[in-house]
Amino acid sequence: MAKPGELPYIAPMSSERVTLKPFSAAIFDMDGTILDTEYVFKSIVFEVTAELGYEMTDAVHRSMVGSSHEMTNKLLVEAYGVTFPYAMFDEKCRFIMRERMQGDVPVKPGAREFLAALKARGIPTAIATSSRKAHAVLHLGTARLLDMFDTIVTRDDVLHPKPHPEPYLTAAARLGIAPADCLALEDSHAGVRAAHAAGMQTVMVPDLVDPNDEIAGLCAAVMESLHAVRAAAFPPLREQA
Q1: Cα(124)–Cα(20) distance, rounded to whole angstroms?
Q2: Is 90 a catalytic residue?
């Protein structure tokens, strides 16, 4: 999302103009990429921050998108001072998120169709997320997507979270596929940086945060949905001729 008074970066977003290079595995970020949960969590972040006596802003929230637990802590302390009760904030946010997602975790448009197309072609898939394992397994299971992935890499599996490439490199290693032969799908700046640093063909599907020139330059494409990514990955035969 653009800052007040700043024009957003407008990237070309058309599956008709983009054909992705062949790939042997697809690795997805989770929240905001596969699961349509970021808007829900944003509202919770604003509510809990106000309840604790602080004022959340769009700028501070944008900086948190795609960040690990540790980075979010650092960002909030920088924004509100060392007295900010991060442990309480984190606990309250997690509790409310579990309550609101109980029984119904929304999925991003095109996610099920793209995953089905990958499965039909025998292309292995993975999740690389900054979320903890319990959160990832619960939400993917509730969304009935858990069985669609060959492996799930969470914050609990790596020493260095995004924007470090370790989550993506770990996922590729578990799949037995060279990073250069992997397609990475992301919605955040930290995630794009991680996937690109891992040497993967990176596609950003923006959710709450738009790409800037730097982030767009790290991507093979910026696309409006996973429907568009599927069309670019598997164009009709007549377009391949």
Answers
A1: 17
A2: no
This prediction's pTM:
0.82
- Take residue 189 and report the two structure tokens written for it: 């700046």
Instruction: Please write the tens of the pLDDT for every residue from 192-224.
Output: 999 999 999 999 999 988 999 999 999 999 999
Residue 163: cis peptide before it, omega within 30 degrees of 0: yes
Distance CA 137, CA 161 (A): 18
Of 139, 149, 152, 175, the residue nearest 32 (C-alpha): 139
What's the pLDDT tens digit per position in 106-160?
999 999 999 999 999 999 999 999 999 998 999 999 999 999 999 999 999 999 9
Kindly tell me the sign of the dihedral angle through the C-alpha atoms of 180, 204, 120, 138: positive
Could you confirm whether 207 is annotated as catalytic? no
The residues, any chain, with a CB within 8 Å of residue 225's CB and separated by 6 or more, are 108, 109, 110, 205
Q: Please tell me which residue in 29, 157, 187, 207 is annotated as part of the active site.
A: 29
Q: Which helix (H) or strand (E) holds 185?
A: strand 182-186
Structure token pair of residue 233: 């990955």
Please state the φ and ψ torsions of residue 184, each to the nearest 5 degrees: -115, 135
